[in-house]
Amino acid sequence: MEVRTLRRLSQAQAVAVREDIKGTFMRIRATLLASSGTFWGSHQGDQDATRISREEELYKQEVIRLEKDLSDLEASVETLRGEVINRRTRVNMTAVEDMALVLSRASKTVAELKMKFPGLSNGLRCMLSSEMERVVREEKFLKEEPDRLESALRRCKKLTGTLVTLKRLASVQEQRLPPNEPQINEEPPRSAEISNADKFNWRWSSNFKEAITDQSQHP
Questions:
Q1: pTM of structure
Q2: In this predicted model, what pLDDT tens digit does every residue of 148-173 receive, in sequence order?
Q3: Residue 134 CB: number of other CB atoms within 10 A?
Q4: DSSP 43
Q5: Of 23, 51, 121, 217, which is least packed with CB atoms within 10 Å of its CB?
């Protein structure tokens, strides 16, 4: 009886240790992914996408582990059931308790996954919506960019033709302009500035009349 009890405790401890190792491995992996996401995700959107991808990866790994445990448990239960029915053997209480322990852990994992799934689902929907918007933008860019480049090329050609025409016109105008003649800055003689009327203005001055009167009185 004591040997059976010790064996049952040993098996239970082995299962617990195996589960603890798996849990530790999952936490280490999550920490590494978080560090990687913090290092590479420079923007908030990138960090959110990294976090959601990490949660999705952990969720999938837990589901895979759960399904494997359930498959192994189902196989063990069927084997034990077949031995009891076909071989008429006695039911091993230790084996049944070990299976019950695995089933309890599996049920707990299912409950945790059901609680995690709604949040993960919302995060994935938001990420998919953002990805779809990005895909639509990229498709629009790929569709419209060739036309934009062609339009820019036509504008460049038009501007080139206009500039060539203006350059030719400027060249023709420069050839038609007369050469610049030097300006004469010499002042004309002051005698040339005196008109004929000014030459004889002295005859009507009062001094000239007095001089003529004096000459007529004294022959």
A1: 0.48
A2: 899 999 999 999 999 999 998 988 88
A3: 11
A4: S
A5: 217
